[in-house]
Amino acid sequence: MKKIGSVAAAAAVALTFSVQSHSATLDTVKERGYLQCGVSTGLPGFSNPDDKGNWQGLDVDVCRAVAAAALGDASKVKYVPLNAKERFTALQSGEIDMLSRNTTWTLTRDTTLGLNFTGVSYYDGQGFMVSKKLGVSSALELDGATVCIQAGTTTELNLADYFRQNNMTYQPVVFDTSDQTVQGFEAGRCDVLTSDQSQLYALRIKLADPSSAMVLPEVISKEPLGPSVRQGDDQWFNLVKWSLFAAVTAEEMGLTSANVDQMKNSDNPDVKRFTGAEGDFGKALGVNNDWAYQIVKQVGNYGEIFERNVGANTPLGIARGLNALWSKGGLQYAPPMR
Amino acid sequence: MSSEAKKPQAHSTMPNNKPLFWNDPEKRALFFQALLILAVGGAIWIIVDNTLANLEQRGITTGFDFLSKPAGFGILQSLIEYNEQESYGRTFIVGLLNTLLVSGIGIALATLLGFVIGVARLSHNWLISRLALVYIEIFRNIPLLLQIFFWYFAVLRALPNAKQSLSIGESVFLNIRGLYIPSPVFEAGSSIILIALITGVIASFFVSRWAHKRQDDTGQIFPTTWVNLGLIVGLPVIAFFISGSPVSLEYPELKGFNFRGGITVIPEFLALLVALSIYTAAFIAEIVRSGIQSVHHGQTEAAHALGLPHGRTLKLVIIPQAMRVIIPPLTSQYLNLTKNSSLATAIGYPDLVSVFAGTTLNQTGQAVEIIFITMAVYLLISLLISVFMNWYNKRMSLVER
């Protein structure tokens, strides 16, 4: 099935005539009336369908924010679930308008894949999950272990580097989806499950007995996860980039989905510019001037998005940590909106 | 025909009488064929050129330079030396060899199993023929992918973990991580065994020739099979003991997380091999049955009337004729099995599609080149199998005198 997907994508690249790639993504999205957004095949907290089949999660909310900015309606998104191997070809071939799927921003991906990362929606790092029965307390004790891993990820490369650096051997068992890696880990096919730490927490909930496994303290890499778009369409690149910045800026200014209507009428010039009551930011981006207001009203600010999907009161229970605002000791920072 | 038609014109005295080229069917055909070639060539050129232009415009790297760049990821099973510093080109070889391994062993097992079941299907024993029928109908009618999942997730995932492995005499271990068997270690002086084996093979070749000639001359039959078996197996065994048993076994041992030493057969390989063999064997069994049934019963009766015993009737009369019917469809089953091995990616067996068209494609992003190489490789493997089977078919075909 995956093979057919890749072949189709390769054929799509081969047969799409140059004319089409000139057309602006924003115009296409507006004409179509909805956004096609690539997400994961199911990762709780980031992109996962709920029991009614509605997609939810931090990555999903980034898609919704872009839809709110571009179309004025956060619900007008068609989610395309992709596994790690399919994601870039799907974006390259134009099957999706943007990719928002816990994808690490690296130099190689930025330069050779024909895509651009628009920012960082979640600062992450790679970790290891082991069964408590194993009696291991550090990743340095994993010499000779069998490791379950998802195909086509930066994780595969970091793992190889880490074991080589520490003169340890390992056996990689590579699966196509994260669900399969969890199944393999649970059945005992491998001793260790490795992935980005946020994913490990998410995947741990999927275990029959989550308390039987633990995440080791070592973080072996930097994994800045963010949305990406095709290269060569700066207008669309700008809009996706600033949709995320708008959510962060809203948190800085204290705007939430609950108070944005009230604050809209305030005299604060920053808020006025933000909500579109003053200035022409929307026009510059090619959308309505109230684009940022729509993001906050319909999706919420970055803090709300984080807490709703992965925060302390969710099953994942992840602390803000690196993802707190810069003013609160984290890394989330947006350039000034002016 | 057309050269006949031209003749009267050649004799014509009027040079102007030569037809214009669009009135000459031969030239006209040539013209249209050239036109077609131009159109097809042009279409291919447009597609290739357009692809390159699109890739460049989208900032996607093209070309085959990536093959020499370091891969940086590990592979579970490799028949050749491989580590993370090797190139992407090396990952291609590793994947290809893994594909060939599972296809080669799969073809051998499926053929063996298929012939046994096919013959059992024709057995006069009601129970045996019904069991064969049930086997064929079950495995032929369930999609292969489901069968692979069945063997991998339902059967092999139910095995115990490394510490509670099933074992045979503390030398063969089976657990969820795979099958661990002792590996032979060849010490100094073990080359004499190899020499004995080669001598045995060569000697048995000459014995066969001599026995054939003797039968032609005197009509006496020599028990070639048993003598040859004795030569090929017996000589190395004698050499082994004379030279003081220079081959020892390395036993797998539980160290840390896993067994180390010996040979490890990973469960992904086992599941894929079993599923492919059993699925294809069901088709081969039907082919064998139809092949044997295609030989008229009169042939058997005629052979018996000549005084041939049952075994020789089968070997000299029935099977050579049945093979002619069996080989062509057998070829397509071999091709199917090889191509079906690409389903490996579903359970994480590191074959060509999983390693090269999977991880390598994703790390480099060069979908067009990698998919092209992968398709070309499968085409090449299929063509090679066809060439071999066609050669074999020609050898087995009826020699008309």
TrEMBL record, chain A:
Protein's UniProt keywords contain Transport: yes
Any Pfam family matching the protein: SBP_bac_3
InterPro entries from the UniProt entry: Bact_solute-bind_prot3 (IPR051455), SBP_3_CS (IPR018313), Solute-binding_3/MltF_N (IPR001638)
UniProt KW keywords: Signal, Transport
Leader sequence segment: 1-23
Domain Solute-binding protein family 3/N-terminal, residue spans: 34-263
Residue stretches in coiled coil: none
Transport as UniProt keyword: yes
Family indicated by similarity: Belongs to the bacterial solute-binding protein 3 family.
Protein name, UniProt field: Amino acid ABC transporter substrate-binding protein
Automatic annotation (TrEMBL), chain B:
InterPro entries: AA_ABC_transptr_permease_3TM, ArtM/GltK/GlnP/TcyL/YhdX-like, MetI-like, MetI-like_sf
Protein origin, superkingdom: Bacteria
CDD domains per record: TM_PBP2
Pfam family, one: BPD_transp_1
Membrane topology: Multi-pass membrane protein
Location in or out of the cell: Cell inner membrane; Cell membrane
Transmembrane spans: 29-48, 92-120, 132-154, 188-208, 229-249, 269-288, 370-392
Gene3D superfamilies: MetI-like
Keywords: Amino-acid transport, Cell membrane, Membrane, Transmembrane, Transmembrane helix, Transport
The ABC transmembrane type-1 domain, residue ranges: 96-389
Matching PROSITE patterns: ABC_TM1
Family that this chain belongs to: Belongs to the binding-protein-dependent transport system permease family. HisMQ subfamily.
PANTHER family: AMINO-ACID ABC TRANSPORTER PERMEASE PROTEIN YHDX-RELATED (PTHR30614:SF37), MEMBRANE COMPONENT OF AMINO ACID ABC TRANSPORTER (PTHR30614)
Protein name per UniProt: Amino acid ABC transporter permease
